[in-house]
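Thread: "does anyone have the structure for this chain?"

Original post by V.I.:
We have the sequence but no experimental structure in hand. Need at least a predicted one for the grant figures.
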Amino acid sequence: MTEKELAQQILNNVKTGLWQKYRRPVLICLGVLILLLIVYFAWQKHAETEAKLQQATLLSSQQAKDVNVLQNLLNESKQNAQMLADFISRAQSGKVQPVTNFVVAAGSSDQAAQQVATRINQDDPTLPLEALEKTDRTIVTTVPTTEQQKIEIDKQNAQNGTTLNDQYQVQVYKNNNYRNWEWSAGYGQHGGDRYVPVEVQRNFSKDAAVSYEQHVGGHQSGFEVKYTVKIDKLFGLF
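Reply from O.Q.:
Generated one for you, tokens below.
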């Protein structure tokens, strides 16, 4: 065997030895890197979708009360859509108040609502802070015009000789969605035992939830099961 062949054999043995020694950590690092890239791009896509859904959406008074419309146009779950439709229905009947009201001069109710939606999406500083608050969903709609109001508008238009600048009441609704599931992960330590707590929580309502937590990676595995209740005051005191 020549010196060149011997040197090549030694080099191959070194490469093989290094690969055998570091193969597992290298593959683990590559796997983690690929997973992080997948999570990053998935989160970016999710963030872009949510940003679009958080834009003010123009709906008619009837659409705003329709569960199917809210599910399809706003990508709402059936539970969130039902709660939002019920609230808007009560607001339109005067039982509760929307986030804010506007009286807008425009050629039609649709134009009035579109003006407000555009101003919200452009963060118009002249609007009330309530209308500009960042929430999961923003709905802009007009209050239905009664027959008597239509008669009054027609009279006013006849006197002014115009159909422009009618006054329309516009309502703005803000909604933060209720989440059915939550999950979390972190770092835990008990004495010299270190572990990763992984928790899954199922929310059954706004006020009650059940969660399961598994301790992973410690010398002894463990778990927790919890029932959570949300209240306004602790024992009626705070």
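V.I.: this helps a lot. The radius of gyration is 30 Å.
O.Q.: and The CA atoms of residues 71 and 78 lie 6 Å apart.
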